[in-house]
Amino acid sequence: MKTVIIDPITRLEGHGKISIFLDEKGDVENAYLQIPELRGFERFCQGRRAEDMPQITSRICGVCPVAHHFASAKALDDAFNVEPPSAAKKLRELMYCGYIIYDHILHFYFLGSPDFVVGPDAPASKRNVLGVIDKAGLEIGKEVIKHRAYGQKITAILGGKATHPVCGLPGGVSKGLVKDEVQEIKDMVKSCVEFAKFSLKLFDDIVLKNKDYVDLIKSDPYSLKTYNMGLVDKHNKVNFYDGMIRVTDQDAKEYLKFDVKEYYKHISEHVEPWSYMKFPYLKAIGWHGLEEGKKSGIYRVGPLGRLDAADGMATPLAEKEYKRMFETLGGKPVNSTLAYHWARLIELLYAAERAMELVADHEITSKNVRNPVGKPGEGFGVVEAARGTLIHHYKLDKNGLVEKANLIVATTSNAGAITMSIRDAAKGVIKKGRIDDGILNKVEMAFRAYDPCFGCATHTLPGGMPLEVNVYDSNKKLYRGIKRL
Amino acid sequence: MKTIVLGVGNPILKDDGAGIHVARQLKKYVKDPDVTLDEAMTGGMNLLDMILGYEKAIIVDTVKLKDAETGEVRRFSLNDFLSVHSSNPHDAGLLEAIKLAEKLGEDRIPKEIVIVGISVNETQHVFGEQLSEKIAKAVPKAAETVLSELKGGKR
Predict the structure, then answer these.
(1) Is there a contact between A44 and B127 if contact means CB atoms under 8 Å apart?
(2) What is the separation, in whole angstroms, between the first and last Cα of chain A?
């Protein structure tokens, strides 16, 4: 095979870019994903007060502020050597469920489902939530908006502010819940359970009953056999807020299980010359290029990675759906990238069910929501962000100021897998140089399934293109490019 | 007229936070009880949530334009943009969010949505709270544009 030398493709600022290289026959030789990486975070944090970190880190990203907020609060619990009261942990987890509810609803209905409901080859102008409503009906649109808002409302009640929470402190949370709020949350999450069930039914009707879609999901170009990673509870069930980090292999066997304090013993980061993005991999296995299989240290995180890395879901309805997914798709692990969408809906159901349990817990109105902190030191925190495992690691000086800060974010963990999925999808759908919008969209679908979050939401208007796809011919000349407006 | 002025941006991503700086500067000058001043580090659906229920919304943000110098301040109406989506791959664009809300019969969408844009030519991806010189100079200009927009709205 010929080696593709990419020169001098500029590293790109501002948005994601997929570059696809064709050979002389017009087939795909290789494909790359470039994502802008925010820089200077460690320096930015140095010398800041530790207790400001949950607010600062929640501003890194407009997409997952709640995930950063609690990964940070947990790292501070550890750094100040304090265990939050049990009620505080439950309040944090309840709020976390609210975040998963709105995030997963937003991804499925706004970004994931248009490819299936409207169709992968439909004109780009129709492949959005408006197109979904045209097909599925106005009533569904109203339900989507209502339940997404419920998720937001839950995080706002608990977090003080919907988009950028202020409640997480070392040793607990700043405020508890009062009775009226408990009732309000109960009513909302009850409705969310029903909506999650409805969404899974919709996925059944639109995706699973359509043979073309099932074939596409199961097809080789959309499969990737990597290791899988996610947080699990003591029964090895999926947990978003707490637990051990578990890694399973290509036969769904446990390969590793470790506490976040040991992450640097198990995860390393590889650097490629063509990307600002780092590529995390399992240290003991090593970096062997963008390859799948047991000999490559690349792993996947996010909804499908989590479900693959666990033995089940901790709530009854989600557990049933979990089993059904693996039965339908041929057992564990499921390697079909497009099954991320299905896994996401199962997690939506779990988050709603788990929120029901938490809000019904008698301790949830406890006033004991914070413990006094100890002396500052080093701390580690981990949560499952909607798009995968998120790790915060700080070193504090004796005055409680930040000396060092390191984060491993979900989309970075998925960088290797996303790049391979794009490459494989491109190889599968682009033949003899034939390219149209629908074909390029099928490449994007491999990318979209991961719900990647890049550039961490800078806000410059008109924004315009979160993603650019360029195809180059065998002379490295631009052959076809699209910018998604 | 019940109006909201929203400064949009990321306050820890240098020039990206220009809209937030404008909102903070305006605090001294906006005393009208009908005018709400707020900051937003978000886009799409969340932005829509924040402007619902007002008759008029003035959004202050950085903009990327083909024909403008860094730091130029311009006024737009929402429809001047093909897509307003805050470079956030996970969310809907504001325009998409508004169209969706209209379709679903939402009756609290502001009748008038104005965007006061500060032109930037490079998107920075380095953390920091300081604005670059040209953008810092644009902040009072953008604040003035918002104030005259508020006056105009009262006619």
Answers:
(1) yes
(2) 36
Find chain B residues with C-beta within 8 A of A59's C-beta: 10-12, 41
Instruction: Report the half-sphere exposure of A115 (CA within 13 A, side-chain side).
Output: 24
Q: Does the domain at residues B3-152 carry the CATH identifier 3.40.50.1450?
A: yes
Mean of pLDDT values over A102-109: 94
List of residues 6+ apart from B118 with CB closer than 8 A: B18, B19, B22, B60, B61, B62, B63, B71, B72, B73, B135, B138, B139, B142
With a CB cutoff of 8 Å and minimum separation 6, the contacts of A327 are none
Inter-chain CB proximity A128 and B96 less than 8 Å: yes
The token pair at A474 is 């065998």
Domain ranges of chain B: 3-152
Nearest-CA distance A418 → chain B (Å) = 15
Q: Would the CB atoms of A459 and B100 count as touching at under 8 Å?
A: no
CB pairs under 8 A between A and B: 161
Upstream peptide bond of A333 is cis (omega within 30 degrees of 0): yes
Lowest mean pLDDT among A47-56, A130-139, A271-280, B55-64: A271-280
- Closest-CA distance of chain A to residue B36, Å: 17
As given in the structure block, the two tokens for residue B155 are: 């006619």
* pLDDT score recorded for residue A165: 86
The pLDDT tens digits of the residues spanning A109-165 come to 988 999 999 999 988 778 888 899 999 999 999 999 999 999 999 999 999 876 678
Exposed / middle / buried, residue A40 (Cβ in 10 Å: 0-12, 13-18, 19+): middle
pLDDT at residue number A459:
40
Domain ranges of chain A: 16-35+415-483, 83-223+336-371
Residue percentage of chain A with pLDDT more than 90: 75
Binary contact (A459, B62; C-beta < 8 A): yes
What is residue A3's predicted lDDT score, i.e. its pLDDT? 30
Question: What percent of chain A is modeled with pLDDT above 70?
Answer: 92
Q: Which of B12, B45, B101 sits opposite A56 (nearest CB)?
A: B12
A316: amino acid identity, one letter: P
Residue A458, pLDDT above cutoff 50 = no
Q: What's the predicted TM-score (pTM) here?
A: 0.92
Cβ contacts (< 8 Å) between A464 and chain B: which residues? 64, 82-83, 85, 87
Residue contact A459–B127, C-beta within 8 A: no
The CATH number that domain A83-223+336-371 falls under is: 1.10.645.10
Average predicted confidence (pLDDT) for chain A: 90
- Alpha-carbon distance of A65 to A68, in angstroms, equals 5
Helix (H) or strand (E) holding A323: helix A316-328
Cβ within 8 Å of residue A179, ≥6 positions away: A365
User: How confident is the model over B89-108, as pLDDT tens digits?
Assistant: 556 678 888 889 999 999 99
